[in-house]
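Pasting two entries for a bug report.
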Amino acid sequence: MYSHKRSSCLYTSCCLLILCGVCLFRPVFGQNTFYQKAPVSTMRGSTLGGVDSLYIDFKKDIAIQLLPFNDLFELALSHSPLLNFEKEVSNAQQAMYKLSKLQSLQWVTAGGSYSTGNQAIISTGAGTTGDAIGQIANGYRFGLNLQLSLYDVVGRKHLLTQAKANYLASLSRKEILEVQLKRELIDLYQDLVTAQKVLQLRLKDQQTATVAYQVAEVEFKQRKMNVNDYSGAGKNYYGVLSSVEEARGSFLKFLYNLEALVGVPIQSLKRK
C-alpha cells in the first residue's frame, strides 16, 4: 500500500515537472505547441488575426513598432477628412475676404465708342462748311460713370470687417480641430499601449491556467480529484480564455481605430 502511494506521488510530480518545463520553454501564443495538441480538443492557445500579424508583432512593444507620436500626428493632420474639409472652408472664406475688398469696383462703369459717317445736319451761319459736318460725325468717345449709394458708402467698412471675421473664425476652427485631433490621438495611442500590456498579462495567465487544467485532468482520470474540483479548474481555465479574447479584441479595436483616425493603412504606421 505504501509503495503504491509513493509511486503515484512520484508519477504526479513527474507530470507536474514535465508540464511546467513545457510551459516555460515552449511558447503557447500563435504557434502549434504542445497545448494545442493536447488530448482535450478545447485546449488551445489564443491567436490573433492573421492579416494583422503580417504587419504587427504582438510580442514586441507596440510603441517601438509604430512611428513616433509626432510623425503619427503629422500624418493625421495631412490625411484627416475633417481637417481637409476645414482647410477648404478657410480657403473659401479667404477668397470671399479678398473679393469683398474689390467690391467697390462694381460701382464704376466705363464706356467708349467710335462713330463715322455723314449725317444730315442743318447748319446755318457764316463759315459753315461740309468739313465741319464730318468733324461732328467722326471720332472716338469714352467716359467713366460712378454710382454710389448711401448703403455702399456707409456699409462697406462693416462688410469688410464681417468678411475678415469669417475668415479668421475659419482659421480658429481649424486650429481647434487640430487640438481635438491631437487629444484623441494621445488617448487612443495610450489605450493601444495599455491594451497590449493587458493582453500580454492575460496570455501569461492562460499559460498558468492551461497547466493547472491539464494537471487537474490527469488527476481526475486517476480519480484523485472529485468532480467539483475538476469543474472549478475548468471554469477557471475557460474564464482565463474569455479574458484573453476580450483583451485581444480591445487591442485590435484600438489598433483599427488608430488606423481610421490617422487615415493611412496599418503597414504605413510602422517604422521603416
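Entry 2 (this is the one that rendered wrong in the viewer):
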Amino acid sequence: MIPLGQRGGSATDHDVGIDAYLSKPLRFAQLVERLGAALGGVVPAEESTARVPQSPPAAGARVLLAEDNPVNQKVALGMLKRLGCWVDIVADGREALRALESESYDLVLMDCQMPEMDGFEATTEIRRREAQGRRTPVVAMTAYTLQGDRDRCIAAGMDDYLTKPVGLDALRAVLRRWLSAPQDGPTAAAPEEARVPGEAESPTQFTRLPSLDPRVLDELRELLGAELDSVAALFLSDATARLKRLRAALETRDCKTFFEEGHTLKGSSANVGAVRLAAMCRELQRMGREEDLAGAPELVARVEWELAAVQKALRGELEHRET
C-alpha cells in the first residue's frame, strides 16, 4: 500500500516479491480487483463488487466438531449443516485425536474446556503429528475473552478463535477464511471477541437482564426448525443435572468440579438465550476458578430459582410460536 501519487509496479517491486500495489486511501473496487488478480480468481464487475455471496462458504467441507456440551453440540451442528458442512462430533480431545487418525477433515472446531483431554492439549498433539505433513486448520471455541486466553490458543497451535456463544455470522466468516485459502501459511491472529450476553454484568446487576432473550430463540428456530423443541428439552434436562452436581460440589468444597459445572451451564444457557442464568453461572465459574466459595450457597439457590423461571419462559415462548 503506497501513498496517493506515488507510482508502483517497478522492476524493483517485482524483484523483492511484490505482485501488486494499492494507493491510499483504499477504494473497495480497487481492493477487490487487486485481490482477484493476485489470487487468480475472476474479478467481478464494478457494479457487483458490493454484493455478498449467498452460497454456503463451506459446501461439502468435512468438519470435526470437538465439544462436550450436548446443547452446544446440537446448536453448532445446526449452524454447520446450514453452511453446507458434513460434520462428525466428538466429546473430548482424545476422541478428536482418534477421529483424525481415521478420517481427513478440512477443519476442526475445538472446544477449549473438555474432560479427559482439553482442546489445548489435543491441538498440541495434532500439531506434533502433523509436523511434516498437511496442517489442518483448528479453530478454538471458548467462553474466555481475555488476551491471555487468546494467546494460549495460538501458542497451542490453534489457527483462529471463536467466542462462545458462537453466532452464525462469525462461524460463516471463519469457514470462509480457512476453507477458501491455502492452509500452509502462518498462524492467523485471533479476531476481536464477541460479547457474551450478561458477561459484563456484576452479581448485583442480574435483575437488569431478562430471563430469556426471544431474539435468540427466533434465530434458533430459523436455524433448527422443529428440532428446537428437542434442544430446549435437552437444555432443561442437562441444566437440572448440572445444578445437582453444583450442589454436591459445593457441599464437598470441590472447587474444580464447581468451576467445570458452572462453566458448562453458562455456555449452554447463553446458547438458548437464558442470559440472566448465563451471567449467574459466570459468577459461579469465577468462584470455582478462584477457589473462593464465599457467597456460593446463596448464588446456587438463585440459580435454582432462575432455572425454574427459564423453564417457564422457554415453554411459554415455544408454545406461543406454535400457535
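Dev reply: Rendering is fixed now. As a check, the viewer should reflect this: The two ends are 57 Å apart (CA to CA).
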